[in-house]
Amino acid sequence: MKHKKNNNIRLLILILLLILLVAGIAYVFANNKNNTSQLSPTPIPNATPVVFVPGIGTSFNSSRFLGIGSDSWGWSPTAKKYYQGLIDAMAFRGYTEDNGLFTVAFYDWRQPLDEGAKDLEKTIEQVKTKTGAKKVNLVTHSMGGLISRAYIQGDTYKDDVQDLITVGTPHHGAANAYFSWEGGELYGWGLVTNIALSAYAFWTNPDFPSLGTYGLIHQKILGIRELLPVMDYLADTTNSDVLKPAATLQDAKNANVIQLNQTISKLFDRTNTVTMIQGTELDTIQRIFVKQRAGSETIKWTDGEPVYDRTGESGNVAISEGETTEGDGTVLFSSAIITDPSIDNRKVAGKHSELLNNSEVQTIIFDKLGIPLPPGDFSPKTYGSALVYITASPITLEITNASGASISLDKNNIAGAEYTTAGAND
Predict the structure, then answer these.
(1) Helix-strand-coil percent breakdown of the chain, rounded to 5?
(2) How far apart are CA 383 and CA 132, in angstroms?
């Protein structure tokens, strides 16, 4: 399988993504097709609040990221749908943002883990103040699990996390990060992460793509480094495919995650229970075959340039030499768990980006939190049609159907419709 590049198409996509994020976009989804049960919140007295920490690229703050708009956090475009099933299921049992029992902890995923941990600490403090609770339960996805561990295992921890659940978290890293960190290539990531990284890179550097994303990532998206594998994964094709020791790599070192894993006992000592859930049965890169970089290259691929026809591309039907089905398409099963008797490790068939909408994963989460599993189907919503508006200036948008019912940012009289905005002018 060959690594495909098309700079013209990539540039066009990035231009469209820039418009999407900066100008603002309103989606109006109609004709909801799934049969999710009607929400009927049933609050539980003295419930422990749940704080949900999502993955990389899912949090957005126009002031911090783009230098425009208000300093407020929300979902990145398209991100929320990957968690909507869990959000709706929690709401059915009375865990909502309004009462403080379910809160999304947005964070600056561009920064090192300790910076994200500070954002999480602030959110937990806000939840405790709002609810009067002394502790919260953390449910996390992907990088959100590392952010949570950085807080719990860090020096500023306030003994306020009861249970920790990580889903698809790369506790030992994810090979896809190598392509981005050492080569500046957005390769093998999911749709949400690609949108977030591409659009941010495009906006923050007016010379893009002449400079390339390598410099931008190393200057402004240091969070990518926190996802690099800490196990041996680079196969040296100039040395009979012998794996290079991760500890000897020059540029692709993940010191923070190494430190977290060396101090893992703090995680057990400072929480009640730890559960790690990981998806499997999808092609996932476990090994990257590399060669010495070209003599003319002095910046990228310090630890080896990928040999793409041997590495393959995560998600393809055919499994190359560097892939295994023991993963969720992004994170290996062996990377998403930590073998220790203090941890409850679970395996579920599923794709990385869709794990939180997986009914089996939801069942495990509710069971570990001691919350009755709600009846009905809380899988992702599907839509029969979508209406998209892209504007280059602030507007107030209201849409009225043929029956006279309307939907806008502040109201919705159209049954089965949903209105979502993203960008600086939302």
Answers:
(1) 35, 20, 45
(2) 39
**Which run of H or of E encompasses 421?**
strand 418-422
Q: Which residues is 38 bridged to in the sheet?
A: none
Among 319, 301, 326, 322, smallest CA distance to 311 is for 322
Residue 170 preceded by cis peptide, ω within 30: no
CA Rg, the chain, in Å? Answer: 22
Strand partners, 122: none
> Distance of CA 250 to CAs 125, 247, 292, Å?
38, 9, 13
DSSP state of 116: H
Alpha carbons 166 and 81: distance in angstroms, whole number: 19
Q: Residue 276 pairs with which residues in a beta bridge?
A: 166, 345
pTM: 0.82
Mean pLDDT, the chain cut into blocks of 10 residues (426 residues total): 41 40 38 45 76 94 77 84 93 95 96 97 97 97 98 98 98 94 77 65 60 78 95 95 95 97 97 97 91 91 90 52 86 96 96 94 97 85 58 73 87 81 53
The secondary structure of 173-205 as a DSSP string is --THHHHHHHH----S--HHHHHHHHHHHHHH-
What is the rounded distance in angstroms from the CA atom of residue 402 to the CA atom of residue 212? 48
Amino acid at 104: V
